[in-house]
Design goal:
Elements lengths: L1 H31 L4 H49 L1
Helix pairs in contact: 1-2
């Protein structure tokens, strides 16, 4: 089972790196856009709050995907076992 744990951690790291890159890219785009300082700060605050909401949903989505994968794996195991014993 250690392999599964490593795969989960690897996916989590990949997802974190992707989100960090997306955030950095958005921040650079906002900071280099021709806007006033006040508009830029408001837009950064809005983008940060939006990202915070989205990140809050990630663990739940990953848990649901994991549960679904376990169910699919259990069904595949049962079919294979029935095929061997059948």
């Amino acid at each position: 089972m250690a392999h599964d744990d490593n795969s989960t951690r690897g996916f989590g790291s990949l997802l974190s790196a992707f989100l960090l890159g997306a955030t950095a890219g958005a921040a650079v785009a906002l900071l280099t856009a021709p806007r006033s300082g006040r508009d830029t700060r408001e837009q950064l605050k809005s983008a940060t709050l939006d990202l915070k909401k989205k990140m809050g949903r990630v663990p739940e989505a990953m848990e649901e995907a994991g549960e679904e994968a376990v169910e699919i794996g259990a069904k595949a195991y049962e079919r294979a076992r029935d095929g061997i014993n059948g």
